[in-house]
Design brief:
311 residues, ten-stranded mixed sheet, single chain, Spore Coat Polysaccharide Biosynthesis Protein SpsA, Chain A
């Protein structure tokens, strides 16, 4: 890390009163100087009041819930306007160790080809996050043998790692842009990794750095109706991702494939009477996907170009 480089931590909140104080407090104990920006997506609980009592540089209160990606973009834009050279994105239901950001910055300085670096994702002191383990198994299985042989490398490259804790360098933002606002929630990080790789940046994780991700759910997500809507959002996002990442087949064929795949899944769920909610959420998702198609086509073309898109 070059002396004097500005580092900003960005936390997007939504009804995160249960976790946000621990999250922000852990960032404030970092052994490198950082500025903390919190972007709140119109929380209805005490999240904002708690944040204002913490050591936060800036609190941005959105009048409505604009989604995870767009809220991060707003925080990123604010940080860049203040001269940020690195941006550390952290989920509200997470905490970092004092050295987490410093170790990531040191790795970034030595491995300049990496635009996105993430620490180890832990659920507790004795349990690694299961989703993170899946990304490692698929992308860098050699990590486990290196661990057994006590020959762990500083950085391991993977094609994707979820954005619960990302260090992004400024040059990556300037080239790739921000999160695509087509994704309200889910898949925005996978889309971003794909775009970063397309523009010549690598994604990876740093075993010497770690954080804790508790994967909390807001009260709204605990109701049956909101779980159905959340699943619909997830399916819609996966369909949008499907038409964005297809680079060889014609756009119309990507659209056809997404419709056919999801329609078959919905019919299968209904015929087996496995889960009526699965059928309903898929139907809702297909309707939303149809409305998003014109923007999906434009955003796919834009994603192929270099620039600070959506920031």
């Amino acid at each position: 890390m070059t002396t004097g480089e500005k580092v900003f931590a960005i936390v997007v909140t939504y009804n995160g009163a249960e976790w946000i104080e621990a999250c922000v407090s852990s960032l404030s104990l970092s052994d490198v100087q950082i500025e903390i920006i919190v972007v709140d997506n119109a929380s209805t609980d005490a999240t904002v009041q708690i944040v204002k009592r913490c050591a936060v540089s800036t609190v941005i209160q959105m009048p409505d819930n604009v989604g995870f990606g767009r809220a991060n973009n707003i925080g990123i834009a604010k940080a860049i306007n203040r001269g940020a050279q690195h941006l550390f994105l952290l989920n509200q239901d997470s905490t970092v160790l004092p050295n987490t950001i410093r170790v990531l910055l040191e790795a970034s300085a030595l491995h300049i080809e990496f635009g996105i670096l993430s620490p180890l994702h832990n659920y507790s002191d004795h349990e690694m996050d299961k989703s993170f383990l899946m990304y490692v198994v698929r992308g860098a299985p050699e990590f486990f043998s290196d661990l057994l042989n006590e020959a762990v490398k500083q950085v391991y490259e993977v094609p994707f790692i979820n954005a619960a804790a990302w260090l992004i360098k400024r040059s990556c933002i300037d080239t790739v842009g921000g999160f695509d606002p087509l994704f309200f929630m889910y898949c925005e990080d996978e889309d971003y990794c794909h775009r970063a790789l397309r523009h010549g940046f690598k994604c990876g994780f740093v075993p010497g750095a770690a954080f804790y991700h508790f994967r909390g759910k807001s009260p709204e997500e605990r109701s049956a109706w909101n779980r159905l809507l959340a699943r619909a959002r997830r399916v819609e996002s996966s369909m949008i991702l499907g038409i964005k990442v297809g680079e060889r087949s014609p756009f119309i064929m990507d659209v056809y494939r997404e419709y056919l795949t999801k329609a078959l899944e919905a019919i299968s769920a209904l015929l087996k009477w496995r889960d009526v909610n699965e059928f309903l959420s898929t139907v809702i998702a297909m309707g939303r996907f149809t409305l998003a198609l014109p923007r999906g086509y434009r955003h796919k073309r834009l994603s192929a170009t270099r620039g600070r898109h959506w920031i």
